[in-house]
Amino acid sequence: MTAGPHVTEAAGVTTRGEAAAPADTRAGYDVDAGIAALWQQFADSPDQASRDRLVLHYAPLVKYVAGRVGTGLPTHVDVGDLVQSGIFGLVDAIEKFDPERGLRFETYAMQRIRGAILDDLRSQDWVPRAVRSKAKEAERAMERLGARLHRTPTDAELAAELGIGLDDLRDFYGQLQLTSVVALEDLVAAGKDSGSLVDTLPDDDAVDPVAVLVDQDNRRQLAQAIAQLTERDKIVVSLYYFESLTLAEIGKVLGVTESRVSQLHTRAVMRLRAKLVEQTGS
Q1: For residues 116 and 89, is the Cβ–Cβ distance under 8 A?
Q2: What pLDDT digit, counting tens, does each position of 52-63 carry?
Q3: Average pLDDT of the segment spanning 178-189
Q4: What's the Cα-to-Cα distance from 109 to each of 94, 98, 105, rounded to whole Å?
Q5: What is the CATH code of the structural domain delimited by 34-124?
Q6: Name one GO biological process term (predicted).
Q7: 3 state DSSP class of 6
Q8: What b/e readout covers 256-268, taking b as 16+ CB neighbours within 10 angstroms?
Q9: Helices (DSSP H) in the chain: which residue ranges?
Q10: What are the structural domain ranges in the chain?
Q11: Domains 34-124 and 129-192+205-281 are alike in CATH topology
């Protein structure tokens, strides 16, 4: 009795003239077998560990659907947010998928993922769905009229095409303003080579550099003027303006009466003012 062909799978070698299966084909079989086993495991025991493994396996579907949905959306919509919403749709698809219905999981999951992303977008939309629907209807009517008339239709023509009155159309325009959102950054940069919104917004807490320079110059002049006072006048000015002592407290420090301190203070201020005027005029 002649023995049949023997295949050594580990080495990928076939004897007695039978060709070896390509490595990528065998790898595909292994992946299919592995995911089928994982589905069976999840069906037998739908625990979180097996579900998470299924989510990781089918995660590229979420990125693909999010990229398709994100095409044409405003630039402020982050694709990462769409992916996050789509993950919830994928988890829901895994938990509700019924293989007995004969539908490929990928087809079913893409529908659930897309639905989850659209539901999340609608929940964030401040414009009523009826207004969105009317806006699309108006756009289609404009396209039909433009193709038929070979020009931009008037408001009266558009109203007639939509089957509404001219006043209703103008009220509708007011509602449509809600759907027209332009990034403030784009408005600021319009007609300019470059520019940033940050550069146009005033910072009330920012320090004015001119005021800083003026303050530094005033302090320098004041220090020079104080340096020219007598020693007692310097003490009075320092204790009164920098240490916030009262005239009575300064009198106790100097051992003189409060009225004498008042005289010293007045004299010091007058001398300072004279020195500052002299410095300014020089």
Answers
A1: yes
A2: 888 999 999 999
A3: 57
A4: 8, 11, 6
A5: 1.10.1740.10
A6: DNA-templated transcription initiation
A7: coil
A8: eeeeebeebbeeb
A9: 23-44, 48-70, 79-96, 105-124, 129-149, 155-162, 166-176, 184-189, 197-200, 209-227, 231-237, 247-254, 258-281
A10: 34-124, 129-192+205-281
A11: no
Q: Which CATH number fits domain 129-192+205-281: 3.40.50.620, 1.20.1180.10, 3.20.20.105, 1.20.140.160?
A: 1.20.140.160
Q: How far apart are CA 134 and CA 173, in angstroms?
A: 10
Residue 258 near residue 251, CB atoms below 8 Å: yes
Among 176, 167, 142, CA closest to 157: 142
CA distance 40 to 232: 97
**What's the pTM value of the predicted model, to 2 decimals?**
0.40
- Amino acid identity for residue 195 in this structure: G
Residue 190, pLDDT score: 53
CA dist 165 and 159 (Å) reads 6
Asked if residue 166 lies in contact with residue 159, where contact means CB atoms within 8 angstroms, the answer is yes
User: Does residue 70 contact residue 77 with C-beta atoms inside 8 Å?
Assistant: yes
Euclidean distance between the first and the last CA atom of the chain, given in angstroms as a whole number: 125
Which amino acid makes up residue 6?
Answer: H
Give pLDDT tens digits for 197-232. 556 667 777 777 778 787 788 788 888 888 888 888
Query: How many residues are listed for the chain in this entry?
Result: 282
Tens-digit pLDDT profile for residues 67-89: 888 886 766 677 888 898 899 99
Mean predicted lDDT score pLDDT of the chain: 76
* Amino acid in position 119: D
**What are the residues whose beta carbons fall under 8 Å from the beta carbon of 258, sequence distance 6 or more?**
247, 248, 251
Structure tokens at 191: 């007609």
Q: How far apart are CA 270 and CA 236, in angstroms?
A: 13
